[in-house]
Amino acid sequence: MRYSEQREKILLAVKNCCDHPTAEVIYSRVKAQMPDISMGTVYRNLRLLAEMGLVDTLETTDKSLHYDGNTEEHVHFICTGCNKITDVFVRAKIPAPLKDDGYHVTGSKQMIYGLCPECRKENKKFLQGD
């Protein structure tokens, strides 16, 4: 694949943030640097970067597709209240039965769902009638 300045800017927009942005957010960040870039270009390049394994994709409970520049093994906590995504780093081992049965695992995606501290606080206020 040949070099593309647009692709590089899109990749950096994902890698240099920690908020798991959507394509629309990435588009607005890159557009500030490259006013002529189109949304279609962002979508095409994000799909290509994901296929190449340079970014990961994850879907939240509202079906929004988010991008993660951290491709190391980690777990995502997805808040079911606000859809905020938080990285959780754990050292999980591949289950022995997979190895014993001849499987070769090349990666995994784990997501934990629940309420973040802010949503728990708001939920508690709502339930208490505050």
Description:
The structure is a single chain. With 130 residues, the protein is α+β, with helices and mostly antiparallel strands. 40% of the residues lie in helices and 17% in strands. It is built from 5 helices and 5 strands; from the N terminus they run αααββββαβα.
How do you describe this structure in short?
The chain has 130 residues and is α+β, with helices and mostly antiparallel strands.
Which properties best describe this structure?
130 residues; alpha+beta; 2 domains; three-stranded mixed beta sheet
Topology overview:
Blueprint: H1 5-15, H2 23-33, H3 39-51, E1 56-59, E2 65-68, E3 75-79, E4 85-88, H4 96-100, E5 110-114, H5 117-128
Parallel strand pairs: 3-5
Antiparallel strand pairs: 1-2, 3-4
E-strand count: 5
Count the helices. How many? 5
Report strand %: 15-25%
Q: Would you identify the CATH H-level superfamily of the largest domain? A: Winged helix-like DNA-binding domain superfamily/Winged helix DNA-binding domain
Oligomer status: single chain
Give the N-terminus to C-terminus distance in angstroms: 57 Å
Count of discrete domains? 2
Supply the CATH class of the largest domain: Mainly Alpha
CATH A-level architecture of the largest domain: Orthogonal Bundle
Rounded radius of gyration (Å): 18 Å
Largest sheet: 3 strands, mixed
Order of helices and strands: HHHEEEEHEH
Taken from the alpha-carbon principal axes, the silhouette is flat
Helix content: 40-55%
Low-confidence stretches: none
